[in-house]
Structure formats: structure tokens, C-alpha cells
Amino acid sequence: MTAESTVPSPGGQPREYGSSPVSVMPPREPGGGFRFPAGQRTTARHADLLPLAAVDAVAALATGQGLPEIQRHPMFVVALLFGVMALNTRASLYRPAPVPALLDELPTVCARIAVTWCTLAALVSAFAPDGALSARTLALGCAAQSAISCAGRGTVHWRRRRALVLRPGAALVIGPAGTAQRVASAFLRHPGCGVRPVGVVSDQPAGVDGLPVLTTGEEVQRALIQNSVRVVLVVEPPGERGPMLRALAEAGCELWEVDPDSPSYDGRGRHTLAGFSCRRLPIARRHTSIGKRFLDVAVSGTLLLLVSPLLVVCAVVLRLSDGPGVVFRQERIGKDGRPFTLLKFRTHRPVDAHEAATRWSVANEQEMSPFCHFLRRTSLDELLQLLNVLWGDMSMVGPRPERPYFVTKFSQTYPGYAARHRMQTGITGLAQVHGLRGDTSIEDRCRFDNAYIDNWSLWQDICILLRTAAALVRPTGS
Fold this sequence. Notes:
Layout lengths: L48 H18 L1 H4 L2 H17 L11 H26 L7 H32 L2 E6 L2 H13 L5 E7 L11 E2 L2 H11 L3 E4 L7 H9 L3 E6 L10 E4 L2 E5 L5 H37 L4 E7 L5 E7 L7 H6 L11 H9 L6 H7 L3 E3 L6 H10 L12 E3 L1 H4 L8 H13 L3 H14 L7
Parallel strand pairs: 1-2, 1-4, 2-3, 4-5, 10-11
Antiparallel strand pairs: 5-7, 6-7, 8-9
Helix pairs in contact: 1-3, 1-5, 3-4, 4-5, 9-12
């Protein structure tokens, strides 16, 4: 979708909005919004990485020393140890469920031990046939290591569950007051989860029975310090409070997204706490931003060098055919609701600034000159946004930015729209490569944009850029 879309309201937008002032994001507090005080950082409750790794090491060493055939291959035990630990790391066995149980991970543990033994036995047979392991040794090795590892893991998990009951972690519940109070009550009725809610964070003021309702950043900070909060339960779309959630994660809190009303049919990475379907809430890591920024600078800088002659030609032709005012500037909303000035070639002139800011259709598209039609159809009018990317206002790949007026209205009308602002907006995105450009469904765009953010990877950005480049050979405009 371009800055000057001249199509009717998107996806059958229900109504024409008025011209009231808009506030894209809630007012920020002095000092830049929510900040956790320096020197008062909490410590998240991490899984027992070292005890579980020690259990695997002991199991591998004990099994290797107890079998005579293995003693003839000193490097076998080392390879066995690192092989099992690598597979367990990939299976997240060193980051178990919030309330760990041996029976839940028993098949996974035993399967990875068996795979490692069989792989190493095959390598020994291939490179040292004289020292090939017998079937008896292979079976005993798998059984012994599985038994020792499971016994050790069972002990570690038992101690962890006991600690959770005796010393539950203080938690905050973020979401609508009524729903958050209901979720908090359920967790309080099930202390075995190891989570003890101490407050609710909501825009609604106190007035319902239950835990204290925190409505300002200062109250949240005070609750974090006084209660040593280590867990945050989120019962609303995470994007609604992106800045606060990032600050909580940086403060050391473990974030969990809780589905309060219905079960999730996507079981990947989900656990059950107090009967609710929950999953750890991924927060973009610093090195993720660095990698994405490096890609943006590399691609935008290279493209600007390559297309700079084309930009000059477009500017000259546009100036001669349509008069002064070649560059179009418009306020758009970027990451975390921050406004920025978007650049593009001017292909249409709205009646006034109010129309440009508040009307989805600026009308009279048929009056555009043939060259402006060409710029729109080929998306050449978007090339100046490479400067926005180079300056850091935008990314090459991300949700398309929109005007403040429509960000506010779409956030009220379409669930998940505000969550798109968790990540830097972009020139192209997953929604665009699936044909969601121009007058297409805003609801569909929200779904694709949020799916892109939830599953972000650098490789996904590269794939989207390649698909965008391929689509330029059959341009349809934006």
C-alpha cells in the first residue's frame, strides 16, 4: 500500500471516519516511557541448565567406563557426550517445561541417546572394522545411559517442582482487568505452577474485586521492586504493550502468553499452566536487530548506488511533466508507534493536507499524467524509501507503514493491527509478496504481518526480498 493510495476503502472498510485528532500510542511518561530502575533488575527463573547438563555428562561417562568394548575407544565417550548434548540442546531439553516432568520428556531423551549410539557405532564400523561394537554392547549402552540419565533428570525435576511449590515466583498479569483477574485467580488456586500473581496491569482503573490493578508505569515499577517479580503473564495481544514488554524482558522477567478463553490448535512450544495453554513470549533480541539492520544498510546502500541515475531521470521527467514538488513527504507510523517522514515521488496532488492525512481515497486518480501512472504501476515511486531505510526510519522488510489517522482507526477495528508495530516497518513484507497490496483486506494483512514477526529470521527477510524482486517483472502497482 502506498502513501497516496487512490483506491476505495480497504477490504470493505465499514465506515468513513471523521476528522477528530488521533493519538496513535498512549502518552509516554517523563523519561521516555517505562524504564526499570538501574541496579534493581530482577532475575528470571531459568531452567536448571547446569544440573541437567551434568546429568547427561555423568550418564555418558559412567556408561562408557562400565563397558569393556567402549574402553578400547577413548574418543567414543567424548563423541557420545557431545553428540547427546547437541541433540538435547536442539530439542530444548535443557530448557524444560515450567513445571517439568520426567514422563513428558522420557521418549525424547531415550530416542536421542539411541540415535547417538547407533550413529557412533556405524562410524566405528566404517572406519575401524576390527573394533566394531557388538549388538549386545550397543543395547546395553543405550539402556544403561538412558536409565542413568532419566534417573538424574527425574531427581532434578523433582527438586525443581518442590522449589516451585515452596517458593513460587511473583508474577504480574497484563491484559483487560476482568480477564486478567480471572486468570490470576486460576493461578492462585494452583500453586503447583510455581507462579503467584501479585497484581494486574490494565488500562482500566481499579474497581473490580481481586488483585491490585496497576495503570501506570510507575506503579508497575514499584510492584516489580517490592515483590521481586520474575514472571509476566500476558492475556492480550503482545503488540498492544510492546515497549513495556520489552522493558520487562530486559529487566529479567520471563514472559508467558496465556490463552485465557480457548485452547490453541498450534501446539508448537506450548505448555499447560493452571489449565491454560501458554507459550513463552519471544522478544526480539539485540543481535536479531543488528543482523536485520546490517542487511538493511547493505541492501539499501547497494540499491541506491545502482539506481541513483534512474532516480535522477525520474525526478527530471516528473518535474517537466507535472511541475514543482517532485518529492512527496508524509508522516507515517513506525516501530513502537514512533512517527517518521516517509519519502516517495509525488504521483498525485491531494486537495489539501487534511485529505492526504484522513482519506483512504484521494480521488481523481484518472487525472494523473501517463508518467505518474507508469511510476505507480512499476512501483518506481517507492524507490526514495531506500533513503528511509538507510536512515533507520524503515527496514527493507516489514509491515507497511500507514498514516497516524488510519493506524488509530484500524487498531480499533481490526484485531492485531496494533501488534504490527512490534517491528520496524518496511518497503515490502510477507503480506505484499502474497498479493496484499492496494485495496485488499486489512485483516489479512494483519495476519500475515504478525505471522512474519512471530517467525522472523534473517533468511525469511532474504526470501521476501527475492520474491519481491521476482514480482517486479510483472508489476501491478501498489
